[in-house]
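retry 2 of 3: previous attempt timed out while embedding S-adenosylmethionine. Reduced batch size to 1 and resubmitted. Inputs unchanged:
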Amino acid sequence: MLTRMDRFETKKSLGQNFLNSKVVPEWLCDAGEVVAGDLILEIGPGTGALTEALLSRGARVLALEADLRAIEILKDKFKDELKSGQLSLEHTDVRELDLAKFGLQDHSFKVVANIPYYLTGFLFRVLLSHDIQPSTLVFLVQKEVGKRASSNIQKGEKESLLSLSLQAFGDVKYVKTVGRGHFSPSPKVDSAIVLVHNINRDKFKEHSADFFFEILHLGFGSKRKQLLGNLAKKYPRPRLLEIFNVADIEPNARAEDVPIWKWLTLTRTLENELEA
Ligand code: SAM
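retry 2 succeeded.
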């Protein structure tokens, strides 16, 4: 007899590539060092492949899912865990995320998820810059995005807008590549597990994260231009050169050649100047 899960018609528009593998959920749990008693926010549980692994480790799980058909399957599959309160299920669109509504406290939970790829940028941004931050975040993302996210000058690589945005809030690691065969339906590209840990907002104790991101985006504005040229669209070049000197940035540097700590000096100095 066909079960409801066998008959589940996946929706491309919801990024539904479900894990058909027992090992990948374990890799995701290992990356997040999930242990009994942890509180995990799972985005997009789908038919519950990862949810099952999280619950088996003794974690409490809050799962947010947009597809009502998946919710019905999960209710069936995890009756006991729902009853005991180990699992909470919310039928919601994660774009309307309200962490306070779920009673989550700052750094009291981890996010572990095989997310819909169309929401990757949004979820990184919203979860890391939120007033209520997770302590750790583990995402399964497209491999190319995973590489870009974890690229780092200290490893002799180029930075990217994404790598610097993540480093602003934590330490980033490319954990491992996950082949496309681990999913049904199989996507066109491989995936990767990315970990952001030690999440904090310490870098923005004395200056504004919004200003940092404004300058970061301006700096990466035109790919062909050097950083100075991009910033000079808004700030006077002679003063920028002085600030580059303070931040130890070469006048001809490109945005992707500048490590996070120099970006922070640059934006802090610029911000102080504007306030003076
Ligand atoms: N976690 C499951 C797994 O690993 O097999 C499913 C992962 S699938 C890549 C992404 C899941 O996110 C789907 O279940 C999809 O319905 C859900 N989803 C897509 N857009 C969403 C949204 N805006 N809010 C909440 N869930 C969403």
